[in-house]
Amino acid sequence: MSKRNEHQTLIENVILILLFVAGANFFIFLKMAGIENPAMAINSRINEPSSILHLRISIGGAIIGMLILWYESHIHPKITKRFSSLFFRRLVWQVDVAFIILIPIFVLNIFFGIIEDKLSVKLAVKESLAFMATGLFLSFFIYFYFLSILVSFLRRLHTSFGQHVFYNYLIERYTEPLEENRTFLFLDSNDSTRIAEELGHVKYSRFLNRCFDDIINAVKEYEYDIYQFVGDEVVFTWPASQNDKGQAVHMYLSIKNQFRLFDNLYRTKFGVRPFFKAAVSTGKVTATLVGGKMKNIAYHGDVLNTTARHLGLCKKYKRDILFTQFYLKSLGHPFFEHELIATLKLRGKANESKVYALKY
């Protein structure tokens, strides 16, 4: 992962942890509104200002938030990697997150009992168990559990559709058409017709869902937006930049490696091995919101047609990924070995197009 992406990921995680902290404090604010000493309402043994209570709840919220983010990034994918069903993957998440919330609360209550309240370990454990039997704890657990679901949903939305999509919808950036210079990466399943006939529509849909999940997991460290899913095709896009360093190629190689890792799983569950061909190009597009009440961001421009044409040439030239001269030019410097494999005039185009491929 690049330093830029590491820095961005760190910032995003900090924001999410702060959201957990703010959510925990908001619960206390709602629960204790109108009580002069909120700390007394929770535990009659202590007589401390509400600032101490908020400090405790902030520490607890931060720890729970960090544990949930760490679990979602590192543990949950490993536990559920062999589950093709989204239902079972989410079920595992829901059970595990419940324990992630319960255990820190129990441990932190013991810790604060020993450090601040000068209790013995035995008495601190007893007090912590007593607190977890109260209605206050139950309401906090339910509240924090649904807060975790909300944060997880926002995180998955960000991961699935890219960092800019949700933000652009909120600010209605594309209410008026805007011209942008963008790179597009088209991915399309090979032999989709044959695979669909072999698996049947329902099983084929499960197969594609698993493929798309693995594709998203493979490229989560990169900066991108998902323009659209169309059948067995997915289109990535991001602003063109000379700092790109061949991102499209690296993304595609990461996806190939992801499928290689789960090769046995696909053959066991579906009897087929996924393979996606790709095409990449860069050019100017007009971006705008379309669709009336059900709005979507639409990109209009010749670059989309050119990329789609190159995608169709993969089979002809027996190459995994093809890209245009416009993409190479946008990089400023080629960050990977490539070779010219054809110069041809695409149907409907006045000028000839150069077709490049990775040089293995």
Automatic annotation (TrEMBL):
Record's protein name: Adenylate/guanylate cyclase domain-containing protein
Classification via SUPFAM superfamilies: Nucleotide cyclase
GO biological process: cyclic nucleotide biosynthetic process; intracellular signal transduction
Keyword Nucleotide-binding attributed: no
A single MF term (Gene Ontology): adenylate cyclase activity
Domain (Guanylate cyclase): residue spans on this chain: 183-311
Keyword annotations of the record: Membrane, Transmembrane, Transmembrane helix
CDD domains per the UniProt record, alphabetical: CHD (cd07302)
Lineage per the UniProt record: Bacteria, Pseudomonadati, Bacteroidota, Flavobacteriia, Flavobacteriales
Keyword Phosphoprotein: no
Transmembrane stretches, start-end: 12-33, 53-71, 91-115, 135-154
